[in-house]
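Q: Structure tokens for this one, please.
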Amino acid sequence: MNIYVDADASPVKDIVITIGQQEAIPVILVKSFNHFSHEEDPDGVKTVYVDHGADAADYRIIQLVSKNDIIITQDYGLASLGLGKGCHVLNHKGFAYTQNNIDRLLQTRHLSAKARRAGQRTKGPKPFTEEDREKFTVLLLQTVQRAKE
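A: Here is the predicted structure, written as tokens:
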């Protein structure tokens, strides 16, 4: 089992790395070359760089994952593809993507994009809070335990 992070804008990389190290699970951060760093990765962490094109990180993650891996992403499209491959997919706000909620999330995304194309204004995401951080930490620990069983 590995944990893959869609890492360009993820506010939970530090949590994922800490839990990955505690549980001896490799963490793979997938980032665009726009976020290149010369810093060495911590133990148990590998960074994979991709072109800066739209969805490049998503496609690379899907190429790399296997059944039972964990994916951390905000992207509903990547979440849907990950679920299709039998992965556990988590959002940084502390909820899991499931077969029961992914269709509704994709539909909402589609309707919002359609409204924006028509010139309407839509709400952006709410700010990431300490409560979100705590919910995510609990969910990741629970998911790791479930995936190990």
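A few notes: The chain has a mean pLDDT of 91. DSSP finds five helices and six strands in the chain.
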